[in-house]
Amino acid sequence: MKKDHTKKDNQDNSKKNVKKIKVAVFCIAAILIFYLGTNFLKGIDVFGRKSYYYAVFNNAGGLQESNPVSINGYKVGKVTHVKLISNNPIKICAEILITEELEVPIDSKFEVAPKDLLGGTVVNLILGTSPTYAASGDTLACYVVPPVTNGLDDMKSKLNNILASVDTIGTSLKEVIKLDGAQDLQQILSNIEQSTTHLNTILAQNKFKVGEIVSNFETFSQTLKKATPELKMLVDNFELISDTLAKANVGNILRNADKAVSDIEAIVNKVNSGEGAMGKILNNDTLYQNLDATMCSLNALLIDLKENPKKYVNITVFGKKDKSEKTAEKALKEAQKAAKKRE
After folding, report:
1. Distance (Å, whole) CA 5 – CA 1
2. Distance CA 95, CA 74 (A)
3. Residue 313 region by backbone torsions, left for phi larger than 0, else alpha for psi between -120 and 50, else beta
4. Residue 60: its pLDDT value, please?
5. Which of 33, 126, 246, 312 has a CA positioned 20 to 30 A from the CA of residue 229?
6. Is the pLDDT of residue 201 over 60?
7. pLDDT confidence band for 121 (50 / 70 / 90)
8. Angstrom distances, CA of residue 212 to CA of 208, 215, 225, 226
9. How far from 273 is each of 259, 260, 264, CA to CA, in Å?
């Protein structure tokens, strides 16, 4: 009996242990299912590759947990945690999970940008070009792109003022039209209609002239197009000339020219004052009078030589002076006396 009772107790204990093991297995399975389900709902692949990177912002720009991380529009991860790490100055640290097998250069950047005009934020991973790659746990550079609607708040007051002005103008027009404005407006429209009619008539009457003007303008444009290379060459030549003038030492040239003018002016002043041989020649009348007397004497001698050549050309055999020679000497003396009298 004792053995049967012991055997029965052992069976009961084994059944209880089996039940405990089953309960433990179910609990562990429930915990695993809960963990995997939670990560699945969060978008985290438990069995895939995990690389965590960090970014520190002065202004997070609306960054929140579970914001997607993309490369060229393709999702490669998500923001897992956002935390304030300093309040003076403000520093916000974001933990970013990359689930793809991706090598991230150390100079890559996280860009926090607005998703669309309706709101939302997306994180773009801008890959760098460094040959060194970042490891899981490294902190990468980051920046925030301001949303397009940032400037609308500043424009609200201006838009309100503009709308108020438009409302005032509309009210004024309404009051004007209520009085006699309707007739005036009708008259204005009638005048505009008449003006357009006259304009159409003028254009119809001068259709040939207008066509000729258009043709001339087209011809001018074609001529200008053909002359474009010559104009370009002219501009290039002008530019070359301007460069040459800029490089030339114009200052020295002008200074030398000024010095030359000053020297010429000094020489002219000396000549006018009678200094030097040239000044004496130009300022003294005696030389002119002597030259004039000499020329008169030579003129008289040439006239007498032409009229009486025998007086001057005579051949003597015995060296005797002829009467004609004496006469020539006498004529020369008389010419000299006449020149002296003129002086």
Report:
1. 6
2. 19
3. beta
4. 81
5. 246
6. yes
7. confident
8. 6, 5, 20, 21
9. 21, 20, 14
**3-state secondary structure (DSSP) of residue 211:** helix
pTM of the model: 0.37
Q: Contacts from 331-340 at CB under 8 Å and sequence distance 24+?
A: 331/300, 331/301, 331/304, 332/297, 332/301, 335/296, 335/297, 335/300, 335/301, 336/297, 338/296, 338/300, 339/293, 339/294, 339/296, 339/297, 340/293
Predicted confidence (pLDDT) per residue in 52-105, tens digit: 999 998 888 888 888 899 998 888 888 988 999 888 888 999 999 988 888 889
Tell me how far apart the alpha carbons of residues 8 and 14 are, in angstroms, rounded to a whole number: 10
For the sheet with 74-87, list strands across it. Answer: 51-57, 90-98, 74-87, 68-71, 121-126, 109-114, 141-144
What is 57-82 written as a DSSP string?
A: ESS-SS--TT-EEEETTEEEEEEEEE
Express each pLDDT in 303-340 by its tens digit. Answer: 777 777 766 665 444 444 454 555 556 666 666 666 66
pLDDT of residue 179: 58
Phi, psi of 119 (to 5 degrees): 120, 180
Residue 57 tokens read as 């912002």
For residues 169-207, one letter each, b for 16 or more C-beta atoms within 10 angstroms of the residue's C-beta and e for the rest, the string is: eeeeeeeeeeeeeeeeeeeeeeeeeeeeeeeeeeeeeee
Concatenating the DSSP letter of every residue in 125-167 gives EE----SSBPPTT-B-EEEEPPPGGGGHHHHHHHHHHHHHHHH
As to burial, measured by CB atoms within 10 angstroms (0-12 exposed, 13-18 middle, 19+ buried), residue 107 is middle
